[in-house]
Amino acid sequence: MFTNKKRSLLERLSGSVATDDRDNAFEDDLPAIHASEAGQSTRAAAEAQMIEDDVDAGQLPIDVFQTPDEIIIHAFVAGVRPDELGVSISRDIVVIEGTRSERQQVMDSDYFTRELFWGAFTRTILLPQEVDVDSATAQSKDGLLVVTLPKLDRTRQTKLRVKAG
């Protein structure tokens, strides 16, 4: 049954309302969030941060992909110095934040076109699986931030030797 009532962002994130109809294009921009994850406090905090990111700061375009052993994030950070970037990583969430500072002051009335974003930005990324936080790396070169996150191998086992004493 089709209804004209639009669901709130919170309803769509939490899944509290059926989302059979796809009349709102904004839903396509949201990450897939499974009902089993709704109770996890870190996920809930990240989802709340994602909402806050959309409201308070500029957009940070990203690509997230995987290899057999790693999850890799590419973020377009042209015009941002490495000391203006911050990357926070937990086992299943990455937060990239920083500031793109305008180097030249230009009067608003002197612009013909103004499309670049200047100021603070933040992006929260929910990872599809847990990663090894201690082995993660981040490198910025030619305006591209590359964050490499080794996947945790949940099937790996090790034998422990029991010591007497």
Provide a short characterization of the protein structure.
With 165 residues, this protein is α+β, with helices and mostly antiparallel strands.
Which CATH architecture of the domain at 58-150 is right? Answer: Sandwich
Q: Can you summarize the main beta sheet? A: 4 strands, antiparallel
CATH class of the domain at 58-150: Mainly Beta
End-to-end distance? 70 Å
Radius of gyration from CA coordinates: 20 Å
- Fraction of helical residues: 10-25%
Secondary-structure content class: alpha+beta
CATH topology of the domain at 58-150: Immunoglobulin-like
Percentage beta strand: 25-35%
Report on the architecture of this protein.
This protein has 165 residues and is an alpha+beta fold. It has a domain at 58-150: Immunoglobulin-like (Sandwich). Helix content is 13%, strand content 27%. The protein has two helices and seven strands, in the order ααβββββββ. It has helices at residues 9-14, 41-56, and strands spanning 62-66, 70-76, 85-89, 93-100, 119-126, 137-141, 144-150. A four-stranded antiparallel beta sheet has the order 1-2-7-6, with no helix packed on it. Strands 3-4-5 form a three-stranded antiparallel beta sheet. β6 (137-141) and β7 (144-150) form a beta hairpin. It starts with 8 loop residues before the first helix and ends in a 15-residue tail after the last strand.
Please supply descriptive tags for the structure shown above:
165 residues, four-stranded antiparallel beta sheet, Immunoglobulin-like, alpha+beta
